[in-house]
Amino acid sequence: MTGNIAIFWPMIVQAGLTLAVYPVLMMRRQRGSGGDNAAFARAANGLDQAGPGYIAGRNLANQYELPVLFFAVCLSLYVTNGATWFVVVLAWVFALSRLVHAAIHLGPNIVPLRGAAFGIGYLCVGVLWLLLAWHVFNVGAVVGAPA
Question: H or E segment at 56?
């Protein structure tokens, strides 16, 4: 049994965002090093926290934190046939919040705005996990399997 395939589109957008941050990071590190291999190595190893590539590196790290939970819950909802249209809308809100978060982080980096975008995504993922738990509980109760 499979769920709503539309759940994959916000996942594709999130994966695309992660892939798009890599070139930004590389360009900022290269530009910031001015051709100095030692400066580039410091930036690449995260040792230059004042360097132009540092924020992009932090943003890339962010793409492997909360989004991991997002991918896991979306796939779980899909394979258990729990990817309802409401779930898909929540997944889209998450993906869009991550795009906004990255644009703020890599752009003006206004922390309160960035925090608001993060908070929206965080709430979406939390609700998605609650919906998965509710779905698994209800499917187990209907089938008679242990919940």
Answer: helix 54-62
- Domain extent, residue 80, equals 5-141
105: number of CA atoms within 13 Å, CB side? 26
pLDDT tens for 87-106 read: 999 999 999 999 999 999 99
Q: Which of 11, 34, 4 is nearest to 124 (CA)?
A: 11
> Would you give the distance in Å from CA 121 to the centre of its chain?
8
Contact 62, 101 (CB under 8 A): yes
Rounded to two decimals, what is the model's pTM?
Answer: 0.85
How many CB atoms sit inside 10 A of residue 124's CB?
24
Count how many domains the chain has: 1
Q: What angle do CA 121, 13, 19 make, to 5 degrees?
A: 105
Is 146 a domain residue? no
